[in-house]
Amino acid sequence: MMTISKQDVLEAFKFRSACRYYDPAKKISKEDMDYILELARLSPSSVGSEPWKFVVLQNPVIREKIKPVTWGIKHPMDEMSHLVVILAKKNARYDSDFFRTSLEKRGLTPEQMEATLARYKSFQTDDIKVLESDRALFDWCSKQTYIALANMMTGAAMIGIDSCPIEGFNYAEVNRILAEEGLFDADEYGVSCMVTFGYRAKEITKKYRKPAEDVIEWIE
After folding, report:
1. 59-90 per-position pLDDT tens digit
2. How many Cα atoms occupy the beta-carbon half-sphere of 84 within 13 Å?
3. Residue 120 CB partners (closer than 8 Å, separation 6+)
4. How many CB atoms lie within 10 A of CB 41?
5. What secondary structure, in 3-state letters, does 97-112 show?
6. Contact in structure between 163 and 100 (CB atoms under 8 Å)
7. What phi, psi does 50 have (nearest 5°)?
């Protein structure tokens, strides 16, 4: 396995900044975009649930439809290379077909299946308490998508590609527009967040970061 130096990784983290202005003349190759999406697909998730989908939204007509309600990406909408809408699964209960299908793909025996579902029931009901409302369950799945989001942005930075995570939009309207366009079934998925990718048009001013002693505490 190839070894990447710690300094190389740190340099990628230092390079990565929220890019607001992209160079419209520079586009990400399909090979590089496939690599970024593969990082998302391979990302970890709670109990291996993978409660996500990644919609690469390149259609200019649909982009224009969401533009009035996506203030967080209004400026680079026409400049960015790629826009990825990250969806989170709805109704991802331990007793759903979604979970059972996922476990079946692991090749579990019937006994192992029932034991695993019982463990997930206890986890969702008693430990993390996400079955108290549909919103709590959806937010739990959305948390998993942010792991994939971070991996995509970091992996992009490691090959010199810029990105910006996006929450600045009207969620109800974006969900409505994209569902009406047939991009997903609104009963099964909802928009968790978005992320833009491309190449910066100008240097980005670095933001202040809290020093390590303010955010890290060792308990021996």
Report:
1. 999 999 999 999 998 777 889 999 999 999 99
2. 26
3. 47, 94, 99
4. 12
5. HHHHHHHHCCCCCHHH
6. no
7. 45, 60
What percent of the chain has a predicted confidence (pLDDT) above 90? 90
Nearest to 159 by CA among 199, 203, 196: 199
The two beta strands, 52-56 and 82-89, are: antiparallel
Its pTM stands at 0.95
Find all residues with CB under 8 Å of 140, minimum gap 6, and list them: 46, 92, 128, 130
Q: Tokens in use for 128? A: 């993390």
Q: For residue range 18-64, what is the model confidence (pLDDT) as tens digits?
A: 999 999 999 999 999 999 999 999 999 999 999 999 999 999 999 99
The CA R_g of the chain, rounded to the nearest whole Å, is: 19
Extended beta strands in 99-212, E state = 162-166, 189-198
Cα torsion at 64, 65, 67, 73 (round to 10°)? -80
Provide the 3-class DSSP secondary structure of residue 217: coil
Q: Which amino acid is at 28?
A: I
pLDDT per position as a tens digit, 112-161: 999 999 999 999 999 999 999 999 999 999 999 999 999 999 999 999 99
Quote the CA–CA distance of 124 and 111 in Å, as a whole number: 20
Amino acid type, 152:
M
Hunting for tokens 């059972």 — which residue is that? 100
| One-letter identity of residue 146 | Y
